[in-house]
Amino acid sequence: MDALVVVESMFGDTRRIADAVALGLGERVHARVLQVGDPDAVRAAGGADLLVVGGPTHAFGLSRPATRRAAAEQGAPGATEVGLREWLAALPPASAGRTAAAFDTRADRPRLPGSAASAAARRLRRAGYAVVARPESFRVTATPGPLVAGEEERARVWGVNLVARLVLRAGDRG
């Protein structure tokens, strides 16, 4: 079984979460991480049994060109032309049996509306993926980070749990 984690990360914290998720996935499946701007990311997604996508929550959802420009103005070294929103729009329809999950990073403040992970999960469902877990949010202390203590370990455990859901799902179909 192959898993692919595709990530948009501007300040590096979302990438750290993606790497931790892949570490958890990698305990039972072959997992790798690609940036949204990687030319192989869309092609690789078509061959993955599990596609996990992640990005930062910007202005209550997925980043847009204007929010990425604003992040670049704040010194974000990873701000790029293409974000998760555009990457998902370019994703071809999933073949039968493809599964997915979504996560985001967001400020550690109570009751902020909106979520990049929820928006990504909706787009994945529209593309024909079976979303196997509720969208998950991982917390940062401020826009440029760092991550809240314990979030990388929580992301690793989330990855382990995603694989467990896939195993259970496969057993239900068997």
What is the CA–CA distance across the termini? 16 Å
What structural class results from the helix and strand content? alpha/beta
Q: Give the fraction of residues assigned to helices.
A: 40-55%
Major sheet: size, sense and barrel closure? 6 strands, parallel
For this structure, the CATH topology is: Rossmann fold
Number-wise, the strands total 6
| Count, helices | 6
- Provide the CATH superfamily: Flavodoxin domain
Annotated CATH architecture:
3-Layer(aba) Sandwich
Could you spell the SSE succession in H and E letters?
EHEHEHHEHEEH
- Calculate the mean pLDDT score and round it: 94
What does this protein structure show overall?
This protein is of the alpha/beta class and 174 residues long. It has a single domain, classed as Rossmann fold. It contains six helices and six strands, in the order βαβαβααβαββα. The chain has helices spanning 13-25, 41-47, 65-73, 84-90, 116-126, 151-173, and strands spanning 2-7, 30-35, 50-56, 99-107, 130-131, 136-140. Strands 1, 2, 3, 4, 5 and 6 form a six-stranded parallel sheet that branches. α1 packs across α6. The longest helix has 23 residues, at 151-173. It is globular and about 50 Å long.
